Amino acid sequence: MTTLVHREVGGGIATITLDSPANRNALSVRLLGDLERELVHAIGDDGVRVIVLTGTGPVFCSGADLKEQAPARPAHDAPVTASFPEIMSLIWESPKPVICRLNGTARAGGLGLVAACDFAVAPDSATFAFSEVRVGVVPAMISVTVLRRLDQRAASEYLLTGEVFGAARAAEIGLLNRAVPAGELDAAVAHYARMLLLGGPEALAITKRLVRTVPGLPVDEGMRQMARLSAERFTSPEGQEGLRAFMEKRPAAWVPAPGEAAPEAVRGVPAPEPAPGDAATRPKPGGGGS
């Protein structure tokens, strides 16, 4: 049976591609199963530092496969709940940053995937809609990730009305990081991916959690916890390697070597130039660091 999700790995980046354009990459039971499998593989692969989620065709994801949902059945047997909650949790809790590279439009459940990712970039021609209420259902599962991203007023506006909105508006309300011309999409994704590769894997995983948890801590308790964490990280093996690399003006051990193969979504775009004195500054060819 043909797989509906593909994974390509290179240069520390795993690109996971939804490949069911005939039904606009709808969240069918088969696609969900394939997507869960590929996410588990990518997260468990020590050679993967960053995950890019994308799709084929003009639509990133149209949401639930309504043909599968149509037959009447008990609520606990609804196909849409097959593994979708687990998939969004996998993305949300992944210790490796996940970038959503929207190849096009997204609707309903597809926006749950977008919101679960740490970064989201779309072509400025893409459109979006939380269309659930218009077919008499609710954006239930996706609200868990979506409402953590969207401005509250905007969430009420678009989840209640089902109105279509554009990529610029999606960036304005927090659903996207950036909306770019289609020809600049891969460069924008590559920028984020290559910058993330410069960070320590453990430091990235911990910082990803901090962004979500620290705002909910009382100030005094937050200060105490973060002081302990800061001390732990400065004395950790990864922290010590980062400090040595900085002092020696060389790339840290976790930074991929120049020229390593990368998946198509980020191939052909130069690595970012590190700032002078940055830990990622590479030695000049044929000699030591400058």
How would you explain this protein's 3D organization?
There is one protein chain. By secondary structure, the protein is α/β, with parallel strands linked by helices. It folds into 2 domains: 5-192, 2-enoyl-CoA Hydratase, Chain A, domain 1; 199-254, Lyase 2-enoyl-coa Hydratase, Chain  A, domain 2 (Orthogonal Bundle), CATH 1.10.12. The protein has 11 helices and 10 strands. Strands 1-2-3-5-7-10 form a 6-stranded mixed beta sheet, sandwiched between helices. Helix 1 packs parallel to helix 3 (84-93) and helix 4 (109-116) packs parallel to helix 5 (140-146). It is globular. The termini are far apart.
Topology:
Layout: E1 5-10, E2 13-18, H1 29-44, E3 50-55, E4 59-61, H2 66-69, H3 84-93, E5 98-101, E6 105-107, H4 109-116, E7 119-123, E8 127-129, H5 140-146, H6 152-161, E9 165-166, H7 167-172, E10 178-180, H8 185-197, H9 201-213, H10 219-235, H11 237-248
Parallel strand pairs: 2-3, 3-5, 4-6, 5-7, 6-8, 7-10
Antiparallel strand pairs: 1-2, 8-9
Helix pairs in contact: 1-3, 4-5
